[in-house]
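Q: My labmate handed me this sequence with no annotations at all. I'd like to see what the chain might look like in three dimensions before we decide whether it's worth expressing. Could you predict it?
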Amino acid sequence: DVSKYDEISGALSKKFEVEFDAKQSRLNQLCKDRCDLDGAIMVELERLEFQKTSVEDIKESKSAEMKELTLRMGKSEDDKKSTLIKINEVDTQLADLEARMVELRIVKVDLVKGNMHLK
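A: Here is what I predict for the chain of 119 residues:
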């Protein structure tokens, strides 16, 4: 009886040892896979952080460019308004001069007619 018990016990121990070794091997493989995945995740997080920083830098750069363009557009509009005001002033002065020329021509015609009566 004892030898049969030892035989069964030995067989069970061998079976459990084989199962334990298989599970230990699987656990080791899973741990290795997890380390590999953790490393890949860290690399990806670093890449994403770099890209985020790059995007923020581009955004700030473009924001500064847009601000500069907006300022230039405003100055251009101000310059255009100033030029239009000066053009209107010159047009008014020309109209005044043309009116004064008409008045002076009338005076000249009157003077010429007056001198002709005297002859």
